[in-house]
Amino acid sequence: MLYSFILELIDQYSFLNVFKYLTFRTGLAMFTSMLVVLLIGNPFIRYFSSRKILDPIREDGPTDHIVKKIGTPTMGGVLILLGLFSGILLWGDLSNYYIWFLLFIVSAFGLLGAFDDYQKIRYKNSSGISFKFKIISQILIAVIGILMLSHFSQNEELKNLYFPFFKNLIINLGWFFIPFSVFIIVGSSNAVNLTDGLDGLATVPVILVASCFAFISYVTGNIVFSEYLQIPYIQGMGEVSIFCGSIIGACLGFLWFNAPPAKIFMGDTGSLALGGSLGAVGIITKHEIVLAITGGLFVLEAVSVIVQVLSFKLTGKRVFRMAPIHHHFEKKGWAESTVVIRFWIISIILAMIGLATLKLR
User: Fold this and answer.
1) Is residue 63 a part of any domain in this protein?
2) Lowest mean pLDDT: which of 31-45, 80-94, 164-178, 301-315?
3) Disulfide check for 268: which of 56, 116, 241, 350 has CB 3.0–4.6 Å away?
4) Total count of domains within the chain
5) 4 in a domain, yes or no?
């Protein structure tokens, strides 16, 4: 929006040429998103607290959660989305269809998450909408988004699956591209949602994954860097770095209020939207497997729930004291801050491994 206006003035004012640089606009998007969240954060939290938009604490969870976290407002994802949209709409190139695809995914998943949060608040329980309704809705959103992307994109690489460490190992998914992409988006959305159970636990890994993909999208959209790194060049992909930068800025601003002890939780409004958008970024940059590596903590959390459910249904026994796995360590006596910081360390290591795959081919 503002970027389009500035482009019209570049011929008259040469110093505005700096806005053509993706790195500069990504930095502006990051700063704008963070500033918006920081500025409206406290009034937002006060309003939600006064309106009793509070998080229903899971009754079967760790007992200290009931004591420490009761009365904390939720739906902080609205804050994140406001910051995210500010950064993108001001500094992004809105003629880029990758940006519109990502905006559709983050908006639709955010609305679904908001409806889930609303149901929890309305009925004062942690169940929200049914699992069946949530999954079906997520699949429909993802299918619509992928069909839109396939229709507007002229990218011949879109249906290819690339493997880290192997520069010539490429699989053309063909028609299977649609269900595969739906699986990535829905899986990523739910994995982040499951991770969001402790103060700041999901926020920092999201920042790390978005940081990795801000770099990946930039080099993927640059013909010189993509050739050097031997990764597919995709025209227009560099603009996605502005989307990732907006995620980073919005989450950094939110972390100011979400750091232990949290003044507000992001709720499903934030976790479903952020997870879905990260999955979408992984698909369009053609780094789905790298997404699984950099977001390995989210994968671990999701797998722990799947293992727990299958084990209990098949054998009647639980593998973990409680799932997702962060609650297992709480049940073992780890302090919440210990779990969070150690999981952050794991995320940092996985992010470095994911970035290393770009060169090790």
Assistant:
1) yes
2) 164-178
3) 116
4) 1
5) no
Percentage of residues in the chain having pLDDT higher than 90 = 74
CA angle 144, 304, 261 (to 5 degrees): 90
Name the token pair of 20.
Answer: 């053509």
Q: Residue 104 carries which side chain, given as an amino acid letter?
A: F
11 belongs to a structural domain = no
pTM over 0.90: yes
Tell me whether residue 64 is in a domain. Answer: yes
What six digits make up the tokens of 350?
């996985």
- 72 torsion bin: left (phi>0), alpha (psi -120 to 50), beta (else): beta
Q: Would you state the structure tokens that stand for residue 286, as one six-digit string?
A: 């053609």
pLDDT of res. 277:
98
Displacement of CA 185 from its chain's centroid (Å): 10
pLDDT tens, residue by residue, 19-45: 888 999 999 999 999 999 999 999 999
> What's the Cα-to-Cα distance from 237 to each of 17, 102, 180, 215, 318, rounded to whole Å?
20, 12, 20, 11, 44
Domain assignment of residue 31, given as a range:
23-356
